[in-house]
Amino acid sequence: MRVVSRSQAALSTRYRFAAMPARKGLLGLGSNVGDRRAQLQAAVDALPSIGVRVTASSSVYDTDPVGEVLDQPTFLNACVTVETELPPLELLDAVKRLEGELGRLAGEVRHGPRAIDIDILLLGDVKLSHERITLPHEQVLARRFVLIPALELDFELSTPDGTRLSDALAALPVGEGVRFFGPPLSV
Predict the structure, then answer these.
(1) Choice among 117, 125, 154, 167 that is catalytic
(2) Residues 104, 96: Cα–Cα separation, whole Å
(3) Does 117 participate in catalysis according to the annotation?
(4) Domains of the chain, each with CATH number or no CATH
(5) Which long-range contacts (CB under 8 A, 24 or more apart) does 159-163 make?
(6) What pLDDT, on a 0 to 100 scale, did the predictor assign at position 3?
């Protein structure tokens, strides 16, 4: 029987975590203030600085506002596939800091105008219900402006419980305006 000291066990545990492959995820990007496409591109360009590698971008879509504030400019939205070793809460903290660096103001009206919005939609097979974050994102199956660009990236995409995003899109009414705006963001 091999005896392992606590320090060896701790080192072994750290090594296992360090050697773990990056988890694949899906982020949603949105902006309706200023140069909207430039804001989305700035987010894609800055994500690697927080430990998030962008692997692909959907096309960009012009979308009608939804939620609590409907009287505001239209948004540009896109989805990006990513890889990261950050656990969910650390990823959330990093994304929120990045939003602030890119011009999102603290205390903005929920669902109101914003320079940048970065939502963690899916993170591998993680299912999480925490006071700060729900994974998959609680609206991922209910928003055309998320589903259309997400399915452009991977039509077979599903949530950890097996719900296909394509089935969710097919079940939604077509009233939420989502219009093609332009090619994918540069990755």
Answers:
(1) 117
(2) 9
(3) yes
(4) 23-182 (3.30.70.560)
(5) 159/122, 160/122, 160/124, 160/125, 160/126, 160/127, 160/136, 161/127
(6) 39
The burial of 177, by beta-carbon neighbours within 10 Å (0-12 exposed, 13-18 middle, 19 or more buried), is given as: middle
> Which residues make Cβ contacts (< 8 Å) with residue 169, sequence separation at least 6?
144, 147, 148, 151
Considering only CA atoms, which of 83, 38, 93, 45 is closest in space to residue 60?
38
Query: Which DSSP helix (H) or strand (E) runs through 18?
Result: helix 6-19
Interatomic CA distance for residues 155 and 149, integer angstroms: 10
Q: Which of 36, 62, 119, 144 is catalytic?
A: 119
Greater model confidence, 18 or 157:
157
Tokens of 87: 């656990």
Active-site residue identified among 114, 125, 132, 143: 114
Least confident of 67-71, 84-88, 158-162: 67-71
* pLDDT confidence of residue 110: 77
- Measure the CA–CA gap between 163 and 172, rounded to whole angstroms: 14
* Predicted local distance difference test score (pLDDT) of residue 174: 84
Verify whether residue 114 is a known catalytic residue: yes
**The pLDDT of residue 116 is above 90:** yes
| Mean pLDDT across 25-37 | 97
Average pLDDT over residues 74-90: 97
Helix, strand, or coil here: 25?
strand
Q: Given 23, 36, 104, 144, which residue is catalytic?
A: 104
